[in-house]
């Protein structure tokens, strides 16, 4: 195949399988920049970095030879230097965000974490975490993109923190920038000015609810994991508040997150978000076991964590069985990430039961796990 055909295939894979979950880039604008007569790529010094990363992620998604998507990554990295830290831009934040998330999924979490940290510092330096009147009166598409990039950065960094046990670097209380509107890229110019959103799945739908979930995850980190002074009364209050927030999240997400009648492209992003919610709920109950109190006993917290782990595994298995034609590397990565953690919770439950000689306790992991087979 010609290089043009290969490039088109990889760009298509990126936008159909990655950008639908994490809309870091504006697709129409990016494709215009690829046009032969467009001057955007010359005006934007980081477009070349973005382009190589789109190729790297697209190649990873279709399951190509690892050496090829590694070569795209190295080409992107070669275009960056320490000088880029002297004058930030939204385009640079996008590039660093893509590098960080790509490396996370290529089993280089520490390097990815560093790039995400750079993206976060530059984003805050640019003031993406707050909006002025001048920002809001700018081009509507530009405002939407700034919001998208900030909140994607927020929940990816939050996920890093939750996975590694590191402190959250971006506090949601410090973010004044609203969530983006539920609009596709083309909706921004087509939808009337006074209509803020559309009532159907868009490329922003999954990222909006994922951002709200990350706010809860950060509070879980702060109130249960990181706190050094949680007493029984304080733990009960925190646990009850977090449980209510998780329940509210499930109630408040749009109806199309539960509907069978959705576009095929949306099934993957929707499933990933729901798996993440189950994963967070499982971790939440597991954390509650370490903080027994009058509101929730350690035994009940264990039972809930086991049930949620099984729920997560079943949901993933059912999706992979029912929609095997929709599977690609990005979906499979999250399926593996969540099911592995769920399996660990069940295994730890078995070991803990044996250690405490409580294998006959009703509702513990052994009978639940038996029902999974």
Automatic annotation (TrEMBL):
GO MF terms listed in the record are:
DNA-binding transcription factor activity, RNA polymerase II-specific; RNA polymerase II cis-regulatory region sequence-specific DNA binding; zinc ion binding
- State the Pfam families in the record: Fungal_trans (PF04082)
This protein is called what? Fungal specific transcription factor domain-containing protein 71
SMART domains on file: Fungal_trans
Q: Which GO terms describe its biological process?
A: DNA-templated transcription; positive regulation of transcription from RNA polymerase II promoter by galactose
Every Xylanolytic transcriptional activator regulatory domain range:
112-186
Show the taxonomic lineage: Eukaryota, Fungi, Dikarya, Ascomycota, Pezizomycotina
Give the PANTHER family listed for this entry: REGULATORY PROTEIN GAL4 (PTHR47424), TRANSCRIPTION FACTOR DOMAIN-CONTAINING PROTEIN-RELATED (PTHR47424:SF2)
| InterPro entries on file | Fungal_SecMet_Regulators, XnlR_reg_dom
Q: Does the keyword Transcription regulation apply?
A: yes
State the GO CC annotations.
nucleus
Please provide the record's keywords in A-Z order.
Nucleus, Transcription, Transcription regulation
Q: What species does this protein belong to?
A: Elsinoe australis
């Amino acid at each position: 195949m010609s290089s043009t055909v290969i490039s088109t295939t990889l760009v298509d894979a990126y936008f159909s399988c990655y950008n639908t979950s994490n809309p870091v880039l504006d697709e129409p604008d990016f494709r215009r920049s690829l046009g032969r007569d467009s001057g955007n790529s010359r005006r934007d010094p980081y477009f070349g970095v973005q382009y190589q990363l789109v190729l790297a992620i697209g190649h990873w998604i279709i399951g190509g030879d690892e050496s090829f998507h590694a070569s795209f990554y190295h080409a992107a990295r070669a275009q960056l230097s320490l000088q880029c830290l002297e004058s930030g831009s939204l385009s640079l934040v996008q590039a660093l965000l893509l590098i960080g998330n790509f490396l996370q999924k290529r089993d280089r979490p520490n390097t990815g974490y560093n790039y995400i940290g750079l993206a976060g510092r530059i984003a805050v330096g640019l003031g993406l975490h707050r909006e002025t009147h001048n920002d809001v009166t700018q081009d509507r598409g530009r405002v939407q993109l700034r919001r998208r990039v900030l909140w994607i950065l927020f929940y990816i960094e939050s996920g890093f923190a939750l996975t590694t046990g590191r402190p959250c670097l971006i506090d949601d209380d410090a973010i004044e920038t609203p969530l983006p509107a539920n609009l596709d890229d083309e909706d921004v110019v087509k939808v009337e000015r006074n209509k803020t959103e559309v009532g159907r799945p868009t490329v922003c739908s999954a990222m909006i609810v994922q951002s709200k979930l990350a706010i809860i995850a950060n509070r879980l980190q702060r109130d249960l994991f990181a706190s050094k002074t949680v007493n029984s009364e304080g733990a009960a209050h925190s646990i009850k508040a977090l449980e209510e927030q998780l329940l509210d999240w499930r109630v408040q997400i749009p109806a199309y997150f539960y509907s069978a009648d959705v576009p095929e492209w949306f099934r993957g992003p929707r499933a990933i978000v729901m798996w993440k919610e189950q994963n967070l709920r499982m971790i939440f109950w597991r954390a509650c076991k370490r903080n027994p109190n009058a509101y929730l006993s350690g035994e009940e917290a264990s039972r809930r964590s086991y049930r949620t782990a099984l729920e997560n595994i079943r949901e993933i298995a059912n999706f992979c069985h029912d929609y095997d034609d929709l599977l690609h590397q990005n979906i499979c990565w999250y399926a593996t990430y969540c099911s592995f953690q769920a399996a660990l919770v069940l295994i730890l439950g078995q070991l803990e039961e044996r250690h405490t000689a409580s294998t006959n306790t009703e509702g513990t992991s052994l009978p639940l796990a038996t029902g999974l087979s």
